[in-house]
Amino acid sequence: MILYGTIIFVGLVTVSLLNIFFNPLYQDRWWLYLVITLSYTVIALLLDGLVALLIRKTVPEKWVNKDWKLFRSSEKEMRLYRALGVHRWKEYVPELGGFTGLHKNKMGDPRDDEYISRFILEVKYGILIHCWSVPVSFLLPFLDWGMYLGESNLWLTIALPISAVNAILVFLPTLILKFNLPKLLQIHAYNLRMQSRQG
User: Fold this and answer.
1) pLDDT tens by residue, 53-91
2) Helices (H), the chain
3) What is the number of other CB atoms lying within 10 angstroms of the CB of residue 129?
4) Best label site of 14, 91, 95, 164, fewest CB within 10 Å?
């Protein structure tokens, strides 16, 4: 959380300062750049929350539980994730599973298949939410109403940079979830084999 908070803060300050020094739009009211940058940052976070809420409320579990291509990680993908060092930096990316009652940054009892099945479901929901959040992030520039009248460039100098930073930050958890999912599926398959032998 500290890393993400730092990135957001540095991005916010950088965008504000660049506009204060180089954007002539509000030079007589430079503080407006701070207010607008902060406003767009809050809106970006609200959009992320809205995407998560809509997907959780509208996409049924039976659909998410299917073996869609989006939820598969090929060997090539896994090699890429290892090359990117996902296993090394994944601990620094905030995990917000507490909102659904299941944290995905720590594994519980792997022999409890009800728990593992729920874990897999939450990981799949997470992948879906983060994948949708990336394109939705880029709706932010369209909120600059002055752009349509040719009176504002804030869609380019503030909204677009914030969209880009937000898209990167919401995409990183996707890599972690797709990196972890094959292991969870293997555990689930093993549990099913053990249950069939015991039955």
Assistant:
1) 999 999 999 999 998 999 999 999 999 999 999 999 998
2) 2-22, 31-58, 61-64, 75-83, 86-89, 113-137, 145-148, 154, 160-198
3) 22
4) 91
CA atoms of 138 and 199, how far apart (whole Å): 52
Q: Tens digit of pLDDT for each residue in 94-110?
A: 876 655 656 665 677 88
From CA 170, how far away is CA 49, in angstroms rounded? Answer: 11
Give the whole-angstrom CA distance, residue 199 versus residue 12. Answer: 58
CA angle at residue 137 from 64 to 43, to 5 degrees? 110
Helix/strand/coil (H/E/C) assignment for every residue in 108-132: CCCCCHHHHHHHHHHHHHHHHHHHH
Rounded distance between C-alpha atoms, residue 192 and residue 114, angstroms: 11
